[in-house]
């Protein structure tokens, strides 16, 4: 848990769900809205600073996009995309409580069933079930789990990124040795002491 983050409890049906603060939507139709984040091991919402950088990179590519948020966690990236008029976001989340919170947060924003879907389960298993390619994919896995190589391979195998589609990868700098296919062209990159951010575009082989 981050220091200085106030804990609270939200009631989800009959069960009290422990929250550790919120994520803020920084622009678009839901600008300024805050969405609760629950206390789940490994859940690490993208900071406002990184989110602002990313969506500046994506400024011309969000409206009308179909998005896939593979390690959804708080859903901050997907909800930010929907706020900026993405058409749809599919969220994949392993933790059951976090998946329920994603649904609650979608309801808080009054999103329609056509605008989002939530797949609860292991990312590799869920990705294998998906058939439709996406315009934009977010990969922001828990740190120090070495999850990126297999997930990247599965995305390629399933053809889940459209031609000219974009994929954003955020990881700890030590995990930046992952390999991507030759058709993924690196467009943007930024590294700090704690976070490595890269944006790729799928081009014709």
Describe this structure as you would to a colleague.
The structure is a single chain. By secondary structure, the chain is α/β, with parallel strands linked by helices. The chain is 24% helix and 33% strand. It contains five helices and ten strands; from the N terminus they run βββαβαβαβαβαβββ. It has helices at 48-57, 76-83, 96-108, 123-129, 148-158, and strands at residues 8-12, 15-24, 34-38, 66-69, 88-93, 116-120, 134-139, 161-171, 184-191, 196-202. Strands 6-5-4-7-8-10-9 form a seven-stranded mixed sheet, sandwiched between helices. Strands 1-2-3 form a three-stranded antiparallel sheet, with helices on one face. Helix 4 (123-129) packs parallel to helix 5. The longest helix is centred in the middle third of the chain and has 13 residues, at 96-108. The termini are far apart. Residues 1-17 have low confidence and may be disordered.
Briefly, what is this?
This protein has five helices and ten strands; from the N terminus they run E-E-E-H-E-H-E-H-E-H-E-H-E-E-E. The protein has helices spanning 48-57, 76-83, 96-108, 123-129, 148-158, and strands at 8-12, 15-24, 34-38, 66-69, 88-93, 116-120, 134-139, 161-171, 184-191, 196-202.
């Amino acid at each position: 848990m981050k220091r200085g983050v106030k804990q609270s409890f939200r009631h989800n049906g009959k069960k009290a769900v422990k929250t550790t603060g919120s994520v803020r939507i920084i622009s678009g139709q839901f600008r300024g809205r805050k969405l609760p984040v629950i206390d789940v091991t490994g859940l690490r919402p993208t900071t406002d600073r990184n989110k602002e950088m990313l969506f500046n990179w994506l400024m011309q590519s969000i409206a009308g996009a179909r998005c896939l948020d593979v390690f959804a966690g708080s859903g901050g990236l997907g909800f930010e995309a929907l706020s900026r008029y993405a058409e749809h976001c599919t969220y994949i989340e392993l933790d059951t409580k976090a998946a329920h919170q994603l649904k609650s947060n979608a309801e808080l924003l009054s999103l329609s069933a056509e605008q989002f879907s939530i797949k609860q389960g292991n990312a590799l298993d869920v990705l294998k079930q998906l058939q439709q390619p996406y315009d934009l994919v977010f990969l922001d896995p828990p740190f120090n789990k070495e999850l990126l190589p297999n997930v990247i391979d599965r995305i390629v195998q399933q053809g889940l990124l459209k031609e000219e589609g974009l994929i954003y990868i955020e990881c700890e700098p030590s995990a930046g040795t992952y390999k991507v296919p030759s058709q993924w062209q690196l467009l943007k990159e930024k590294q700090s002491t704690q976070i490595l951010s890269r944006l790729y575009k799928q081009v014709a082989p």
